[in-house]
Protein 1
Amino acid sequence: MPYSTQSSTNTIGSGANGHYRLLIVEDSMTDYELMVRELRKSDHAFDTRRAASESAILTELREFSPHLVCTDYRLPGITGLDVILMVAEHSPLIPVIVVTGTLTEEDAADSIKAGATDYVVKERLFRLVPAIRNALEKRREKEELQDTQRRFEHSESRALALLNATSDAVALLDAAGIVLEANQPCAEFLGQPLGGLLGRCAWDLMPGDQAAECRELVARVFADGKPVRAESQHGHTWLDLTVHPVRSPDGTVGRVALFRRDITQPKRDQAELERLGTAVAQADEAFIITDADGIILYVNPAFSAISGYSGEEAIGQRPSFLRSGKHDRAFYDTLWRTIRSGKTWQGRFTNRRKDGSLFQEDATVSPILDPQGIVTNYVAVSHDVTKQVELESQMVRQERMQALGKMVSGIAHDFNNILVPILGLAEEMLSSPETITQPECVRACLSQIVASAGDARDIVRRLREFYRPGDEVERAPVDLAEVVAGAVTLTRPAWQTQAQAVGKTITVRNEVRSLPAALGNAAQLRELFVNLLLNSVDAIQEAGEITIQAQVKGPRILATVRDTGCGMDESQLARCMEPFFSTKGERGSGLGLAMCYGIVKQHGGSLHIDSAPGKGTTVEVVLPICREAKPPAEAPARGATVGALRILVLDDEPMATKVMQKLLQRLGHTVTTAQSGEQALAELARGGYQILLTDRAMPGMSGDEVAARAKEDHPDLPVIMLTGFGDLMDYASETPPGVDLVIGKPASLRNLSDAIDQVLG
């Protein structure tokens, strides 16, 4: 049979509890090394050797003389039961612990019956050190019992003194069960005074079930001369009974020593640990247990199901192998600082599965402290909330669309109002040629047309800003007065045009003036105030006012939105921020205030609502001030514009190219136009152009492709992209390859001049 051994010394702690030799019967070197590493956590020092065959085991029992044996249950050619019997035959004092991957209840029972002290499943190696400590303690007890037996043989008086020093019930009996000697705990167990116990039959003083068990054990010892041990349950009490032979000088068994120990509490502790282990193994939440250095010792099946990593892949690593890169170093520094101080950390992780996909989990990480308050382990319990987060995101988008929908009809009304002067004044000039000869009249008409077109452009931009998602945008200094003003403008159709259409008269008073910059995300805060204003509009039945105010309160800004609407009763107020709870019936989604609450919490602020029926509603929003914000720098004085340039304008819309050509010529430049990408590239090939101004969305060759090819052929040529997607590209920080600057349509004369100055430095 193959034979191999390996020796190593592992000294942990002071070694005050002794130095022990440990034989590990294991055919897997990996499992052997895992066990050796687990032993380093013990306060004992160990010399370990490994054996994997029957001959190797017998050799090590003779030469190594171990204090303890740990054996796998399934080995090449032998089983754990064979090892237990071999060790018992060599030395009954050597405890044997079965350490195996899987062990059925029947195999576990057979192992214990054969003499195994304990068993440990390899997936729960954190039980190995406590099991070894318990086994060594039992060996020590056995050695003490042997020593006690020898002392009995030499001096009954000295033996009695030793018996009285233990908390176990101990009695010296003859074959008939007559009590020859006993200690005080035995007298207490039998309910008799110590002096009146001697000379009486122990069976007559015990409960019937215990008497029969003791009598049977004593008879076995007198019959074969070997010590016996048994555990038994009597009601809610567990007893450990051990009977040792006491030999006469001629070697015969003349008496026996009976030892009784109450092991009820250890049994309860063991059962509790087993129940806890079962609960953790079957839980839907992922459990990770690490040592004090953050090395993973255990993961439950739910962890593997969520992450895709098996227990074998995770154990021995640090939890950082799951990192997705979505959290910065400060995030993890805060986590470790919290748990190392003995406190519990709670938060949300975005981690990466084995297959590379991301998942989100709400986690609680707690330290485990020893009696001295020192951290020995960490336990992380987490729940996969990926689907929940996706659902919440969908609901947020739905609420945004509903809020947008409330403004659409009013915005259409505003657009029609804007078109009235544009169309009317243009038609007036076309139908009245005489006005062309009146410069002041023409200037007035054109100024009004330009102003109206600018209003239409601003409406489109505000709508884009409102719908721009801000969940993943970093926080920055935000002008709250500007945000509130934008929200008031965005909701104007709801509280003015639409309200008047249904007979409501609503006045909005925006009293927010200059404030320190808040720390936050402008898009999210704009969405917050839009939702609060729309809620107030819905709450006003016929006529009323909405007042918005803000003031500095220490390191924070307190903003209030107050309305004179119908208000809410106590039950509605208690539930108004619950998702899907609405006081508007089928008209409401029940997500508006819940979204507002979520936005404020994400900003590290707070939201409070005060309301009563008939007295309106006041919403208080508290937001942090951005202490690092600096006052906006003054714009540098505008110098003289650049000299005349030769510019190529590309746009598939003839009217757009004509307008751009006239505006650029107005700035003193020479302009050539093209209406396709191929035509533009051909013009550039002729040379002499100093700037390319191109649209993006065009049939055939797109502006992105034209810019890339133009830059490839003319690396020093500045390229400006003028597109209706300009605002969206700016929000997404999107600049196509080859493009130096993106500006949005429609562009004014000043916009074009600034863009040219910027690309030319």
Protein 2
Amino acid sequence: MVSTEQPKQYRVIGSRPIRHDGVDKVTGRAEYGADVRHEGMLFGAVLRSPHAHARIKRIDASKAEALPGVKAVVTSADFPGAEEGDLDLGEGRANPRWLLDNLLASDKALYHGHAVAAVAATDQHTAEDALALIQVDYEVLPAVIDVREAMLDTAPILHPELRTAIRARGVEKPADKPTNLASHLRLEKGDLDKGFAEADVIIEREYETAMFHQGYIEPQNATAFWNRDGEVTVWTSTQGAFSVREQVATICQVPVTRVKVVPMEIGGGFGGKIGIYLEPVAALLSRKSGRPVKLWMTREAVFQATGPTSATYSRVKIGAKRDGTITAAHAYLAYEAGAYPGSPVGAGAQCAFAPYNIPNQVVDGLDVVVNGPKTAAYRAPGAPAAEYAVEAVLNELAEQLEMDPMELRLKNASKEGTTNAAGQPWPRIGAVEVMEAVKNHPHYTSELTGEDVGRGVAMGFWFNGGMESSSSATVNADGKVSLILGSTDIGGTRASLAMQLAETLGITSDDVKPHVVDTDSVGFTAVTGGSRTTFAGGWAAYELGVQIRDRMRERAARIWETAVDKVEYRDDGTIAGPDGKQLSFQELAGKLSATGGMIAVSATVRMNTPGPAYAGHIVDVKVDRDTGKVEILRYTAVQDVGTAIHPSYVEGQIQGGVAQGIGMALTEEYFYDDEGRLRNASFLDYRMPVANDLPMIETVLVEVPNPGHPYGVRGVGEVPIVPPQPAIQQAVYDAIGVRFYKTPMSPRVILEELLPE
């Protein structure tokens, strides 16, 4: 661990306690969505389109409804409808009308696997049998699955009413006609033409990335009960219970106060469990049947119909002087949104050049609909594709300038006060510290030997999130503190938030008991996503701790019959008064009932100081010229983590992001046939890296505390997925002298390049 400033001395923060939910999870006591059971519960199944683009002329469910054991069938027509609008999902936004259409297709099926009807029956087998009895008459239409082809005038149109939204000045508004280009945004800084005129070397390259899935172990699920009093309860595995509540209420047209969402334990998400796919459908089936209904997806359905990240096409042009000073940069980013508008191209545009201080730059971002599943957030959504293209060009630029790749980056590094692509000044950031740590690391300075081996480096960025979090806490008579949270725990946030409350109170992590509760039991809390939870939830925990400290001082003053300002709450949890009087936290907690009752506090925070994060990765590879396989020999991930609350979980987040980024670079991709049917919807055929594909991933934690947080927290979970693609691309080039401009660089792709025609 590298501290770049004089580190503060903490008692709890920086330690590695056992996670509070660990025993429940390793013993099987923790309850996930698939574990939900209710008296009289029905089981559901979903009928999906076999076509990528087809008009739905008629749905006849009469035979399914007549099947013994079937209690309800629903189609899009059973929903009350949804108006145009703009729902904030935490990471991303959604038009309710398109959100509803994605749940159950209305007039058209827009991708292979698009849900068109759902059944609830007394057992799973009957529900699945009933699907075969639903007759759907389709008029098959031409499909488009490539982002560039979708923008051609000859492309099939998905939404006849769609017109391009222009989100920047200087972008010419297109003709008023149907289009697949949902929006065009532009970020502009300085004078691009002037900057390129000043350059001695200019490189322009095109890049493509495939569609990648988050690959969480647990499939989507939902159980709902629409009670006769109009109250709807939903049990689901989600990254944001309040986001689900808002979406269900909007789609079912009931007040949010009549919807309660109970978040179950979650078997992975990475952004893919923010959107909804089953919850309103289960609710409607429950309303029709009068019984609880449980739905879950098969793995094939997860791949077909939940949100992967965008496949992309990028064109990046960068100019520099002979001394390495970058004078201008332009990025053209076209992202697939799937069947409905809303790709993460906006975030990609903001991240593209973020590690660097480039005076003249333009980023064009295009959001394009295609006949594929609606894309969803996936760990630093939008950033991996954008920065893959930028970092790959920088590595090539360093070679042409005969400069060390990290020297080139350091010469142009973003610093506090320099402006980003939108012209806003950076706060205190750690880009330089990360770059220096990479440049000086023994991995980077070591000699690389062997045949067909190579080394690559790349930087990554994520701005991290703030948003709203609420928590409450109660001091118990035994000195333990109950911490009530609204944030789903995916990567250990129960521990990280409990540790920050414990630090504030001067007690141990074990003395804080965190509980993730339903939407009726805590104030509004945004999604667990965007690397916001430890930051924002930590602010709330700190505020709770400050309130408890003040209340404890008041109680001690009452006991000692002295003024509150004569009582001190010390950082070790000791409450001290005049004449040497002293009580421990536990001792005073035992006296609360007799001095006015127990202490309960609550806090809601919305801080806009989340602290951007930077990462730099070094990778060594060996390429097998006979098989095309790329072996990762060594991997080092350097990252500014602000303050590592629980270093083990921070290291795990970084290692997980690297593993997923390696998959993007080398093996993972959605494969569609010419008719737009997904051909590899299984973990067997969608090739994710497993343990024997990876070396031990070394992590270096650089700590540049975020001044916008009481404990210096920066989010850590997003940025490690950003650098792997360009770092590995450069390493492969260094090994065999071939540059690949499309990921994944699978064995097939490499062999096609190496083998003679």
Protein 3
Amino acid sequence: MENIATPTMGPSDIERWLDRNLLSVQKPGRYTGGELNQQVKDWAKVPFRVALAFPEIYELGMSNLGLTILYDILNRQTEVLAERVYSPWTDMELAMRAARVPLYSLETKHPVSEFDLLAISLPYESLFTNALNLLDLSGIPLLVSDRVEGDPVVIAGGHSTYNPEPMADFIDAFVIGEGEDVILEMVEVIRSWRAEGVGRGQLHRRLAKIWGVYVPSLYRPHYAENGTLDHIEALAPEASLPVIKRIVSKLPEPVTNFIVPMIDITHNRIPIEIMRGCTRGCRFCQAGMITRPVRERPVEEVVGAIEAALDATGFEEVGLLSLSSSDYDEILALVRAVSDRFRDRRLNIGLPSLRIESFSVELMDLLKASSRRGGFTLAPEAATERMRKIINKPVSTAQLLETSEAIFQHGWHTIKLYFMIGHPSETIEDVQAIADLCKQVLKIGRRVMGHRARVNAGVSTFVPKPHTPFQWVPCDTLDQIEAKQRLLKRELRGPGLKFNWNDPLETMFEAWLSRGDRRMGQVIYHAWRRGAKFDGWGEHFNYQAWMEAFDYVGLDPSFYTHRERPVDETLPWDHIDAALHKRFLTEDYLWSLEGRTRVDCRERCFACGILPKFAELRRQNPGEVWECPEVRSPSRKIKSIPLLPA
């Protein structure tokens, strides 16, 4: 591939090139900027510049709330500017490489290499090769060890970085946890470092002092003879072991002046985070484990944010976002308040992640007036009660069928059911039960509304993720996955049924990267050199490139996927503390083997580890009002947590 090693184009050169070439690529609106509510500051007058990068196409990057929040926070600072960067699609990339046009920001068209800080969002593993491609298009050395003082500082954050080791060779510093506070602390450290003109090694040591920041260059992995990780060695006194995730004291003020895109994007709506964290304890769910503790916004704050955002954008849909929206304490009051306040504006309300067990007919009635009557989504994840106990989602089949009947009775004609195959201890009978359950739901729908009833089954394949009780279990083999999918393809067809599944090879790919150690960095690099990018797009996923990269590096991919790990093995992410005790995760894993479940930890605390760290945060911030929704009485009243002694 043509490398853009030393970009020489400035903003005016890039704009002239765009004027001549934009009409030759798909969707030129991806590359122009100039949208309503974008923030443009005077480059010459602002001393510190941040490029916020989402290494995917514009339509997906613009839908990412995390980067939107950071964009708002940074641009509120008078001496900082933040601009956006997304990955160009393949046609645009070819044109840019042919003309040696460097990757640039949308707001002012400055090359990314001219920014002080490049912050990359990595919410999922399929973006890893795109991140390398983004660096290369920017003319920034891919390896941390090759960068000099004039290069941007490259940081990354997001859920996939809770195991940062596969990307450790390419990232100066990782933000582990929540970024709203730490981003400003990192900006201040980098500003002072640039002013002093000392080496990048000094910068790394200073960044490592910040709570929640992991600097890979200050750590060295050591491996045992059998190839497993023996231990991680800290190479500097500033390198803490473990690195504890960052937790914000309270949810930041909601963003309301959302950028209105030039073209249709994945989510054309106002996204408002109503709650962060989850107390359900599903054993397969990394997000539910790593985003603890639960923090909720008041109803009044949500309604006020929606009103301000509607006035600023003109959107007609709002998404009330959380991992479990119907677990929000005042969900009925919130939906009622939003429906009443915006009745005349014909606002469509989206409530993702509704729980089967906490759903109510009253909530359905409220949604009925403010939601498009299309599909209604439920996620039982497994089709037998035995399997649901193993994964700690103890919903009865009778409860699921009753909820499905109520949904059809309230006018929804399509129910989408999400399942996973490949859970620990799963049998082929458990897989057959997925098809049987879908047919039962369809039968209910036909009885209620005739042939308009539809059931769509989405069946993904389970990947054991770091910092979950299932982090020790192996993945299904390709043969096992394909056999299960063949059964479902045979059973889930006919009028009213639709079956969606994912490519088993993509499951292997996700498992390598989410469960890998630092040696995976060389595999990522050599796969990218062989053309791997846009790995999340089926038509671009290049399995052969990954196999060749594993062979070149001398690693066995099955080492990361099909091997059950002993509970006393040192895991590649053990030096990253997600504020969960490893003994809690171990106990929960052992409980799963017995089919034992835990109740929602709003009802009972199981000492997962978050409470002491949350209490310490409270002690460090005495001006804040601190309450922990993790420990609640049956009346749902929040109990304050005790202060730790000084």
